Amino acid sequence: MIRTHPHMLAQYKQQHPYLVALDSIILGFDGETLRVLLVKRGVEEETWSLMGGWLQPDETLDQAANRILYELTGLTNVYLEQLHAFGDPHRDPITRTVSVAYFALIKVADDESRLSDAYQAQWFSVYDLPPLLFDHADMVELSIKRLRYKAAHQPIGFELMPEKFTIPQLKKLYDAIYNTDFDKRNFSRKILSTGLLIKLDEKQKGYSKKGAFYYQVDKAKYQQAIESLLSFIAN
Amino acid sequence: MIRTHPHMLAQYKQQHPYLVALDSIILGFDGETLRVLLVKRGVEEETWSLMGGWLQPDETLDQAANRILYELTGLTNVYLEQLHAFGDPHRDPITRTVSVAYFALIKVADDESRLSDAYQAQWFSVYDLPPLLFDHADMVELSIKRLRYKAAHQPIGFELMPEKFTIPQLKKLYDAIYNTDFDKRNFSRKILSTGLLIKLDEKQKGYSKKGAFYYQVDKAKYQQAIESLLSFIAN
DNA sequence: AATATTAGGTGTAAAGGTGACACATAATTT
DNA sequence: AAATTATGTGTCACCTTTACACCTAATATT
């Protein structure tokens, strides 16, 4: 039995334990700019940082990341994915800490009201960030890369949209993600050809004269698309 | 100063530290089958496992993964990439351990001779694995998915090829990765159209009657291709 | 009431890439 | 000298992508 192997235990006891933290890059889209949610955590009043917390003894990493996200936003069922583990020996000057970064995509509208007051949370443009704690700027940078990479291969952008949205709104999101200006005609054709959107009868009022039709995601098809992506790649 | 903030330190002291391990999924290709290098580590004589080790106080995660890979294979400058952190509370029954898994792609020819004897290392087909320690089977599974995903979008397959190789050999690698049989004519057209290969004058002898020309990777262009992928995606 | 304005939405044609398939070629074996 | 076997080039139909033009709906202006 491994469980009680004496050499094994000795080998374990020689090792140094470290603190394990989780940090979340919470990305949102306000209709114009790609934004990241930053907080002033507890006692670190001077510096903006990512929302984070410690791994508890009874949790998996995913559970911990979800818990921490919930503590700040009150949201569950959020798109949340492990990004990368950061383990530079000096990344946290107080004590050696390995941080597992997660990135979350949320619908800003959902959020607004529910934000916990305890953290002085605020949305910042990802292209104009304040100085951040530790290596959190690296984490944000990597998350943008990951978002660009994924959004190019998977219909992941919907995670940042409200329940109903227009094609021009979605185009603005992709413009913001890639910092460019896609052709509206080709963009809408490409998006609609995925068959993942359901056109609603309702039009958006106020923003433009003509008004654009609202769409919503066909959740069943969307789920299927995300899941079948891997088999699909291999022809 | 954060460094000496009293509340801060108190907060840190309440936390539980855990052991941090690294495990490497070392993938190779022998010309026919995609293989993973497994070991019988130290005292765990009964079970095959991934090569792994503990994070040392002075190392980054990448450094630790490289060190551990070197200990087994004697190789440096290997394609090595962080895969995922695994942190189920009970994944290691002896004590709570968070393991950061890395996946490595190596040229089997390189390896052969240099393998350390200390670990009883052996290559196994990824499609026919023995029972593995802890959650190592999950790690291997995830690494195959990642490899399939990446190889579909990036010219990463070359990492598994020897310095010079033929197009039919490369096709066999892709056949093995995707468990399929690509059309040789379309495959070679697609590969050559990347402009990443340099044709050599030399032909492979012995394997077939006609013999296939050897190619090698244009390393400058390859490096550029890997790096420029992100900007490239956004048109 | 008529016209101008503005953003939404549809259409189209050229160019490029992909997939399915046939055949010529080089070198070894018989 | 003929047969064999895997290499490597060629072609054609089809689909996707790109670039660009114009019509439309609804509000704003005169």
From TrEMBL, chains A, B:
SUPFAM superfamilies: Nudix (SSF55811), Winged helix' DNA-binding domain (SSF46785). PROSITE patterns: NUDIX. Gene3D superfamilies: Nucleoside Triphosphate Pyrophosphohydrolase, Winged helix-like DNA-binding domain superfamily/Winged helix DNA-binding domain. CDD domains: NUDIX_NadM_like (cd18873). Pfam families: NUDIX (PF00293), WHD_NrtR (PF21906). It comes from the Bacteria. InterPro entries: NUDIX_hydrolase-like_dom_sf, NUDIX_hydrolase_dom, WH-like_DNA-bd_sf, WH_DNA-bd_sf, WHD_NrtR. Residues 19-147 form the Nudix hydrolase domain. PANTHER family: ADP-RIBOSE PYROPHOSPHATASE (PTHR43736), SLR1690 PROTEIN (PTHR43736:SF4). This is NUDIX domain-containing protein. It comes from Nibrella saemangeumensis. The lineage of its organism: Bacteria, Pseudomonadati, Bacteroidota, Cytophagia, Cytophagales.
